[in-house]
Amino acid sequence: MNTLVLEEHGEHEVAVNVYQRLADNRILFINSYIDDRVAVDITASLLMKDIQDPLNKISIFLNAYGGSTRSVFMIYDMMKTVRAPVEVICMGAALNEAALILAAGTPGMRYATPNAMVCLSQLMYGGSHYSDLSGAQITMEQIALDNKKFIEALAANINKPFKKVMEDLDRKKYLNAQQTKKYGLIDGIVKVKKK
Amino acid sequence: MELSKLKRNNLHNHEDTGEPGRYGRTLIELTPGRIIFLNEPFTTEVASAMSALLIYYDTINPTADISIYINSVGGEEAALVHIYDIIRMISAPVRTVCLGKAYSAGAFLLAAGAKGKRYIFPNAKVMIHGVQCAFPLQGEDDPSGAQNYFDFLKSRNDLILKLLAEDTGQTFEKVKEDCSKDVYLTAEDAVKYGICDAIIMK
Questions:
Q1: Residue-wise pLDDT tens digits, A16-46
Q2: A89: CB partners within 8 A, 6+ apart
């Protein structure tokens, strides 16, 4: 789909990318699988907006179907570091790893649209690995460590004990907006107009 | 309306890939007219771009109409629900226009436009049905995991049918029964069913 829009600047008409244009208004979009390319865009924008104005909120519109572990932690760490409050609005879906980004918004500023869905799970591991057995052992330990860190971060942001969250996520947990709010991932549901 | 402009530029895109065709620049020239073209399968990636555009037009002017022109074979239920929420979240009214075809999720999107602002061209076609899924269910390797996912799919199916019932003014039971198979509707049938409000006449 075309994401270029035409804007008038004085006498000239300029085609600008709609994401770039919204970022100028402190609105950031995460709307694909969160890989390193997405993560570096978001972290750089967060840093930039924080330098420009540390008192105004930065909004993240989230619609992500998972992400790679390191990229998600990269965004998570930056969200927790900037001084500006970070508002997160989940529209569409926040699945698996991406749910951490939703939970990591500034408390009181985490929202979802009424029909959004969230899926909580432990870390996904879809990579293939080729090494000797001791190498495989090390990789497995690292994955377990990442998983523990992920659940810890999630638990800290939804004010639940680590053990409880670990048990809950034994199986994938599909939540609608109401259930997400009840589980503590978000603080409110976006108000929409009636038809 | 920007229709005269449309005709003059003879706009068409490659049907399935969404790649800009020979007149790709025209799509950009239409943007000051607040027109979004859905001319490809309605996937989650497309929904993401569309939501950004809707929010952008809303920030520029929250009172003027935004138009979505639909010519789509349908797509994913997640994309549909995503855009549905955005349409109701922004304050600008969203006008939907069906040209060519609006099948499956495309038809649901057509129905989701603002009441009284949903249009269809005389020879366009609409098709509605419920959520489709393929086996084996993606990413689930054991029966209870698959059952878990299947239950979730069923709840999502009920959700979009409920939304369609609200939009069309039909009862949920009727919509559910109709959507158990593919139902093709002509422009007149679509207006009668309540998916759109008027046929565009010269």
A1: 899 999 999 999 999 889 999 999 999 999 9
A2: A59, A60, A61, A62, A111, A112, A113, A190
CA–CA min distance B82, chain A (Å): 4
- Interface residue ranges in chain A relative to chain B, Cβ cutoff 8 Å: 1-6, 8, 15, 18-19, 21-22, 25, 27, 29, 31-32, 61, 63, 65, 91-93, 113-117, 171-172, 174, 176, 190, 192-193, 195
* Chain A nearest C-alpha distance from B177 (Å): 23
Model confidence at B12: pLDDT above 80: no
- Quickly count helices (H) and strands (E) in chain A: 7, 9
Burial class of residue B79 (count of CB atoms within 10 Å of its CB; 0-12, 13-18, 19+): buried
Q: What ipTM is given for this predicted complex?
A: 0.87
- Answer yes or no: are the C-beta atoms of B73 and B104 closer than 8 Å: yes
Residues paired with A88 in a beta bridge: A60, A110
pLDDT interval class at A6 (50, 70, 90)? confident
> B56 and chain A: CB distance < 8 Å anywhere?
yes
Q: From the candidates B14, B91, B104, B144, give the one annotated as an active-site residue.
A: B104
Whether A45 and A51 have beta carbons less than 8 Å apart is answered as no
What is the DSSP code (8-state) at residue A96?
Answer: G
Is the predicted pLDDT of residue A134 greater than 90, yes or no?
Answer: no
How many angstroms separate the CA of residue B181 from the nearest CA in chain A?
24
Chain A neighbours among B 114-133 (CB < 8 Å)?
114-115
pLDDT at A56 over 70: yes
| Contact of A115 with B159, CB cutoff 8 Å | yes
pLDDT in tens, B147-185: 888 888 889 899 999 999 999 999 999 999 999 989 999
Q: What is the DSSP letter of B154?
A: H
Given an 8 Å threshold on Cβ–Cβ distance, is B56 in contact with A22?
A: yes
